[in-house]
Amino acid sequence: MRFEDIKSHIENLETIGKGWRGIVYKGRYRGDVLAFKVPRDEIHKKAIKKEAEILKEVNRVGIGGRLKIVGDDFIAYEFIEGKPLKDVINEENAKELIYQLLMQARELDKMGISKDEMHRPYTNVIVDKEGKVHLIDFERAKHSKKPGNVTQLLHFVMTAGKRFFPHIENSKIIKLAKEYKRQPSDENFKKIVNYLYRNSGDF
């Protein structure tokens, strides 16, 4: 099945994103509102197929848009209704949103999948109306013996996200990140969370 074969059957088709590898459309197909990722050129078909394989894996643990169709030259996954993290995050909700991201980053690390974009979540995280965060855009993701999702997210916390954690010391975060990178255990991950969320009520 090629995208051109079903394009005329997709209701309310619209372009919602353009990257150097592909174009993302939104539309209703067979009752579902989906996002369709189509490669710009034939050379990028392999990358789109690779993203489909990654999505199949992360979907099993509730991460990413739910994959619905793998075509010959496109993939389609459940469209996530929400807003980009950068438009939603504020002093009141930041700790909760980043906590969710930490949990998903840890899950990816345990699966041996490196998303390679966790240091800049403003551009590839959607927050739905219930306040749940969703990772999107897995085209750069890959299998890795040493994935760095948690440590990349910590880089964000120390830079753009530092205003949400005024109590932390970068030297301490760097030390904890090095310990986790050397031994990515549940214990070392818990040390990171405990340090970030000390005196934070429910965390």
Structure, explained:
The protein is α+β, with helices and mostly antiparallel strands and 203 residues long. The protein folds into 2 domains: 3-78, Phosphorylase Kinase, domain 1, CATH 3.30.200.20; 83-196, Transferase(Phosphotransferase) domain 1 (Transferase(Phosphotransferase), domain 1), CATH 1.10.510.10. It has 7 helices and 10 strands. The strands form 3 sheets. It has a 5-stranded antiparallel beta sheet with strand order 1-2-3-5-4, covered by helices on one side. A hairpin with a 2-residue loop joins strand 2 (22-29) and strand 3 (32-39). It is elongated, with a radius of gyration of 18 Å.
Strand order of the largest sheet: 1-2-3-5-4
CATH topology of the largest domain: Transferase(Phosphotransferase), domain 1
Report the CATH architecture of the largest domain: Orthogonal Bundle
Terminal CA distance: 47 Å
- The total of helices stands at 7
Shape: elongated
What is the radius of gyration computed over CA atoms, rounded to a whole number of angstroms?
A: 18 Å
Q: Tell me what portion of residues adopts beta-strand conformation.
A: 15-25%
**In percent, how helical is the residue content?**
25-40%
CATH class of the largest domain: Mainly Alpha
Low-confidence stretches: none
What would you call the structural class? alpha+beta
Largest sheet: 5 strands, antiparallel
> H/E element string?
HEEEHEEEHHEEEEHHH
Query: What is the number of domains?
Result: 2
Average predicted confidence as pLDDT: 95
The CATH superfamily name of the largest domain is Transferase(Phosphotransferase) domain 1
The count of strands amounts to 10
